[in-house]
Amino acid sequence: MPYYLHVLDKVQGAAHFMVPDSEAREIMKSLMSLVSGYMVPKLTREIGGEPSKTLLDLGLRQV
Fold first, then answer.
1. Is 43 exposed, middle or buried (0-12, 13-18, 19+ CB in 10 A)?
2. Could you tell me if residue 35 is inside a domain?
3. Could you tell me the pTM of the whole model?
4. pLDDT tens, 12-29?
5. Range of the domain at 43
6. Among 13, 15, 41, 63, who pairs with 5 as Cys (CB 3.0-4.6 Å)?
């Protein structure tokens, strides 16, 4: 079971795999409606200069 789902880095030769952040968020929201919470990986992005992965906000409110 994956712990992280990485948004693709912009690298040469991989543009056809690029998914905008807004679409990645929608995919994650759809996944969350299909599987249990512990099965949903965290959506992350690698940002140069940051010490660790950066979680992308899915725009969900905690209740």
1. buried
2. yes
3. 0.76
4. 998 898 899 899 999 999
5. 4-47
6. 41
